[in-house]
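Why should sequence recovery work at all? Because a backbone constrains its sequence more than one might expect. Tight turns favour small or flexible residues, buried strands favour hydrophobic ones, and helices have their own preferences. The token representation captures these environments compactly. In the example below, the structure is given first.
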């Protein structure tokens, strides 16, 4: 109560010293002393005279910059003192959970936001410049820099919607040029390595070549994923779903992957194999073949995916089909959502699989 009385006293003092400055009363009549035109009569109504005096004082006083921003419609007027670290925490806790991202993507965002907070510390988000963001991105390798740039653009897109910033500064930065270090894999090199591979690795290599899928997805393929003559795949990296017809060379490879006590296609002694183990054994077979001994950056298992795409092009398969086949995102392929509670699977035309199979000899 005592504090309230103190605030009331302070408020009355401010009114008298600022809002009611130059306000005078003489024998029941009120006036205002204007700094240039002199005394102005305000009549005998005390309340009305006080209002006039306050309006005159406000009108004659220079406006505070924050008040000017409010009159100019500056959306940042009420957003004072928000640091980049505070907004990163809000973005991670409140925004990302609503975006339906894969666990792997969420981990990537968490690492990115941690680096942003470490680099910019408690700097106000409005004080961050284009030069600051460029410096943050330049301090990282090209691949990571481009990935962080993309995440930074998303972060600023939401900050703009919140009225914290006026423009998307990360979008003004340039993408770094990424040069693929490893050499491409030719069909001749593929066959040379395949000769030195154990039977289970031959199967993994053949599935990679025929389906064009990533090693992580190949390691998780199961016999139970084959339904109605199609192999159903849900890609780990992109969550894209597609169904590939089990015909031609793919049918032959799957027949070789029969396992008595294990549902997975790629197994050793009826036990599933990790993607990392597949990649390491591919490197061993490559070294044993000696086909890449004079190559500085020899191809990895992942290059089978690129070989598959090039062979599809050579066999005359439409580029659009190849994009669907590999699960690559594109501007033309959008709005793939659930339909009546069932997931939409991009279907690979059987005629394309047959045409592609005729080009491959396993």
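From this structural description, the recovered sequence reads:
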């Amino acid at each position: 109560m005592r504090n309230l009385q103190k605030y009331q006293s302070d408020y009355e003092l401010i009114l008298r010293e600022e809002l009611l400055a130059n306000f005078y009363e003489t024998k029941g009549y009120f006036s205002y002393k204007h700094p240039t035109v002199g005394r102005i009569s305000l009549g005998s109504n005390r309340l009305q005279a006080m209002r006039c005096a306050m309006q005159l004082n406000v009108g004659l006083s220079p406006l505070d910059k924050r008040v000017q921003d409010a009159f100019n419609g500056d959306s940042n007027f009420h957003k004072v003192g928000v640091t980049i670290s505070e907004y990163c925490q809000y973005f991670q806790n409140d925004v990302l959970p609503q975006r339906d991202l894969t666990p792997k993507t969420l981990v990537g965002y968490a690492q990115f936001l941690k680096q942003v907070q470490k680099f910019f510390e408690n700097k106000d988000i409005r004080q961050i410049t284009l030069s600051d963001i460029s410096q943050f991105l330049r301090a990282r390798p090209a691949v990571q820099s481009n990935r962080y740039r993309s995440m930074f653009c998303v972060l600023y897109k939401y900050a703009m919607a919140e009225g914290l910033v006026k423009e998307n500064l990360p979008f003004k930065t340039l993408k770094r040029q990424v040069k693929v270090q490893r050499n491409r894999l030719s069909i001749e090199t593929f066959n040379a390595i395949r000769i030195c591979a154990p039977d289970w690795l031959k199967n993994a290599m053949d599935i990679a070549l025929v389906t064009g899928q990533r090693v992580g997805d190949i390691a998780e393929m199961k016999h139970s994923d084959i339904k109605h003559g199609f192999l159903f795949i849900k890609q780990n990296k992109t969550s894209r779903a597609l169904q590939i017809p089990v015909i031609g060379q793919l049918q032959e490879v799957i027949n070789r992957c029969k396992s008595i006590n294990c549902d997975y296609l790629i197994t050793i002694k009826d036990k599933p194999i990790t993607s990392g183990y597949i990649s390491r054994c591919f490197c061993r077979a490559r070294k044993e073949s000696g086909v890449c001994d004079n190559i500085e950056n020899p191809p990895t298992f992942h290059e089978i995916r690129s070989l598959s795409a090039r062979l599809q092009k050579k066999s005359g398969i439409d580029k659009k089909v190849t994009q669907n086949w590999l699960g690559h995102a594109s501007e033309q392929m959008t709005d793939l959502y659930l339909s009546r509670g069932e997931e939409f699977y991009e279907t690979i035309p059987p005629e394309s699989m047959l045409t592609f199979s005729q080009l491959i000899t396993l």
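A few observations help interpret the result. The chain has three domains: 2-61, 84-172, 187-328+340-359.
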